[in-house]
TrEMBL record:
Organism, as annotated: Iconisemion striatum
Matching PROSITE patterns: HIT_2 (PS51084)
Motif (Histidine triad motif) on chain: 110-114
Family in the record: Belongs to the HINT family.
Protein name: Histidine triad nucleotide binding protein 3
Annotated ranges, domain HIT: 17-127
Xref: PANTHER family: ADENOSINE 5'-MONOPHOSPHORAMIDASE HINT3, APRATAXIN-RELATED
Active site feature: H112 (tele-amp-histidine intermediate)
Coiled coil: none
Amino acid sequence: MANKDNVSGEDIDNTCIFCWIARGGDKETRAIKQNEELVCFQDIFPAAPHHFLVIPREHIVSCRSLNKKHISLVKRMAELGRAVLLDQGITNMNDVRLGFHQFPFISVSHLHLHVLAPASQISQAMMFKFTPGSDSFITEESLRNRLEKRKTFNSCFGLQ
């Protein structure tokens, strides 16, 4: 369950490793790039030569927790991921893969964007986990399109 962190005022889950990383609590995980809203770090089980995760500091469980108002968050996550790739010397943005795992294929219940490059070098053993349009993986562009069609929920008035 998300709790209010008294220091930062952000929604966090005290049992979530990604919330811990976002607050700088995991000394073994180095933030590659971050801002007030997002943190990017290297995936501990890389499926490609460059494999990063972009997470919001706020605890959001998964893509299923998102609605229309989160479209700009997804865009900012992708922008940060692309900026990290550029910082790493990756210039061919046609050979990258940015996306999210979907239930039941999520290993950490905290929204995280996978940023992989070159996509053509994703290991064969891991390809099934990062195939766009599969049950396990949705690209950030497809997620934004899905959210555009999704109705928002207002607790006072129901679906809007």
